[in-house]
Amino acid sequence: MITLNQLTVGYQGNAVTPALEGVFATGSMTALVGANGSGKSTLLKTMAGLLRPVSGSVSMPRPRINLGWLPQQSEIEKTFPISVFDLVAMGCWQKCGWFGAINRSLREAIMTALEKVGMQAFATAQPGTLSGGQLQRVLFARLLVQDAPLMMLDEPFAGVDSQTTELLLHLLQERHQAGCTLIVVLHDMATVEKYFPQTLRLKNSHAEWSGFGSAVTQLNFNRTHGAS
Ligand SMILES: Nc1ncnc2c1ncn2[C@@H]1O[C@H](COP(=O)(O)OP(=O)(O)OP(=O)(O)O)[C@@H](O)[C@H]1O
Known about the structure:
Elements: E1 2-8, E2 10-11, E3 14-15, E4 20-24, E5 29-34, H1 40-47, E6 55-59, E7 67-70, H2 84-89, H3 93-96, H4 104-116, H5 132-146, E8 150-154, H6 162-177, E9 181-185, H7 189-195, E10 198-202, E11 207-210, H8 218-224
Parallel strand pairs: 5-9, 5-10, 7-8, 8-9
Antiparallel strand pairs: 1-4, 1-6, 2-3, 10-11
Helix pairs in contact: 4-5, 5-6
């Protein structure tokens, strides 16, 4: 469970969000939505521990758990001279260490993940030669290999065609059904309504939680219904 305790996020001490209060229950699948500049990426980075809160705090599971992280494509270094296989193998670092050998079972797990996203034929290609949608498939393969119990993804379908989006959404649903907690920044409300049981919408003055399904928590329920 991740709890936001009167959390504001931003830069150089200046908040870009209102104070946020609420809970992402273990196993929940939440779409983080809001207008451009409302602070979605900043909130995600703060929850991931990449930025310090401006005020308030984020309570994470202890010990801090393995986090699957997918930044916006613009933040990804594509020209680093490694193969697609090696890029996906980075998802194994918690299993084998940064400089550990990739044993046969990890090698199989990497190839299985590449097959799942339809990219097995590109294992020896360089990431810089892939299209945006192909690279996104490969980054999803890395998430599959990592098999983290918590995943945060920032606009994973930006610039991705509808067929690839469907495939990647299906993979996210599989992770959700396996008990993974998912927090995903999205803009397409049709996708949010079809696939996401829970939504956190950032607005200037406040945030709205909605549609909790079975993952409803008292804190979020109170927030939605205006109780203290
Ligand atoms: N490194 C930074 N330093 C200072 N301000 C920043 C920095 N990065 C983002 N901002 C500002 O913080 C605000 C929130 O940005 P953020 O990227 O979190 O919004 P967002 O909701 O994810 O937007 P979008 O939907 O356009 O991706 C914006 O006003 C942005 O200009």
